Amino acid sequence: MSEPAEAGSGWEYASEVQVGFVGVDGVGQLGSLVRYWDEPFERASPARKFIAFKGQKNFTGDYWAATSRDLVGYESWVERDAAMALDFDPAVVALASQPFRVLWVDGDRDREHTPDYFARLSDGTGVVVDVWPASLVDEEAAEVFAFTARVCATVGWQFRLVGDLDQPFRANLRWLARYRHPRCHRASVAEVLREVFAEPQLLFAGADRVGDRMGVLPVLYHLLWRHELTADLVSRPLGGGTIVGLAARGRL
User: Fold this and answer.
1) DSSP string over 35-94
2) DSSP assignment, residue 228?
3) Which of 134, 162, 190 is the last residue of a domain?
4) pLDDT tens-digit readout, 77-103
């Protein structure tokens, strides 16, 4: 097995780290990260169960990812939003939740950590994502995340530590996610929308030029989700007065 170009002298460091995961064949595996670093973890089953019980304070569930065409688990609204943001990212082609356990020895302690998500980018890069609001990152958690980041670097993966999404992007993303499913795409309407918004204009005004607003808007929002149309989703809530234009390039 070849080493990733980014690994360099850190390859031996990764050899001391173990990963436990459930492969695409449904069989559990445990071994050195050096051996398994190029597994398709974006297709792995969760390495541990999502626990739900009466009275728990966090909310668990499944998010249907348009990129993977599969369910992705989450254990809080913050994790769900993080999965949604990955799904919205045009560079992400697949993702999985809790894809593996990382096990290592820290002095006289055996430690392990299960990252929240693994995403695969269109250029083949792997991305390990941990979701943890900044206000809740204590000293021990910071050590785990720092260790995970170093391990990821040795095998050529990215590491991202993300927390709550900023408003109004979070609200806009949640809204557009309602229209992420391919069933919202109507080819004939989408074609006209691309022609109309080739010249940037107000969202409602452009939709009305295409046809009945209630029939056009789901397709318009779907094209925004796919990045075929573009709008400012960061500065203000999405609405009829939002300027929408044709993107240079959408999701493939």
Assistant:
1) HHTTS-GGGPBPSSPPP--TT-SS--EEEEETTTTEEEEESSHHHHHHHHHHHH-TTEEE
2) S
3) 162
4) 999 999 999 999 999 999 999 999 999
pLDDT of residue 107: 80
- The token pair at 207 is 């939709």
Domain count, the chain: 2
Token couple for 28: 């559990």
Enclosing H/E stretch for 117: strand 117-121
At 145, which helix (H) or strand (E)?
A: helix 139-154
User: What's the first-to-final CA gap in the chain, in angstroms?
Assistant: 30
Structure token pair of residue 147: 């260790």
pLDDT for residue 5: 47
251 found inside a domain: no
Q: Which residue has the higher pLDDT, 252 or 172?
A: 172
173 secondary structure, DSSP code: H
